[in-house]
Amino acid sequence: MKKTANSRQMKKFFYIAILAMLALPAGARKWTLRECLEYASQNNISLKKNLLSIDTQEENILKSREALKPSLDFSTTHTGSLNPIQQSELDNRIAYNGNYGLNASWTVWNGNRNRMAIQASEMNKELAQYEYQINANSIQEQIIQLYVQILYTNEQLEVNKKVLEISEANYQRGVSMYEAGSIAKADLAQLQVQVANDKYSITNVEGQLKKYKTMLKLLLELNTGSSADDFDVAVPTIGDMPDLPSATSIFEAAKACRPEIQKSQKQIEAEKLQLKIAEAQGKPVISMSGGVGLSHSTANSTAFYNQLRNNFNANVGVNVNIPILDNRSKKTAVNLAKINILNAQLSQVDAANSLWKSIDSYWVEATTNKARYESAMVTVESNKTTYSLLSEQFRLGMKNITELNQGKANLLNALQTQLESKYLAVLYYKLLDFYQCKEIDF
Length: 442
Fold this sequence. Notes:
Blueprint: H1 2-22, H2 33-43, H3 45-66, E1 71-82, E2 94-109, H4 113-179, H5 185-220, H6 247-255, H7 259-279, E3 285-297, H8 304-310, E4 313-321, H9 329-395, H10 401-435
Antiparallel strand pairs: 1-2, 2-3, 3-4
Helix pairs in contact: 2-4, 3-4, 4-5, 4-7, 4-10, 6-9, 7-9, 9-10
């Protein structure tokens, strides 16, 4: 019994812990890329609308299936009549009349259009599901881009802060040199301007970082009333970037799984089915109908139940409708269906071409920026060494302020190229994995 009580307490504690974690505000933790992608798939409003479209198509499927069954309805009418001239003592001046009917109808055969309508509804649901996946991929691709952009801007901000520290140290050194008479006041002013420019750069980057965070929060449908400062992403460890397979092999893998390609193929099938439905318009329609009816009236002296028995009627019939002249309805429907098939086939080619252009472009960007990053790492180390030497020479009076600023500019450009090429390579590597339907994370 004691063990059971302890077990219950542990379970209770576990559930409370889970609820507490779910209740944490967005700023209480840093979001990983995988968490962002999963959260958006569950909460993005645009995707929720796509899910409602799928539900709508499911209702259409159920409706088209029910069309195979007979329909049954009940009808009743009640009227009153006034006869101001009484013919005899048995006549009623005011009479009440009641009619009751139960009617059924059933389409036995209409060229299989009703069964093909079910297939069309099922295809429309599949197309809606592909549309959901396409929209989800588009949102996830934007999330990947913004996530990497935030990582890049975060690191750029850290670099700019370090540069500001260097500029402030140079300015303090310049003050000492100015007081010692080693440099002119104009040179000291240039050092002060550098500090101001670096502070402005930090402010500018901080503004960009807030903008990117806000954009990502909107995609995730997080609390739009909160500040961007309440949201942050986790900084992953970025490992080595291996050599990529060929763009052609990536394209073949993408074609096998990307929803836009699958949707274009399904759209062709759906249009071909619509052609069959259009061709069936020229076939006869066989239907059955039947009904039973009852009536009574107070103008009749016969007893109520006897009237119902005497006025009971029933009917059943078979209807055959053979179209002869339809004002070109069938021919127009057939020709439009053929045009839609050709249009769907062109859309399939266009979807494949668009996919290839994206993959080929991403592949070139990934390989190019990887090479740029490897080269930039060497350049940065070289410029760091050069700038360190220039700073020491400036302190000893062997270099002037212009040479020092030029060395700093060279180092900043090298750092900027390194950062830019690094995160561009990371971005396009991730996008190429994403286009191959691989699970995306760092």
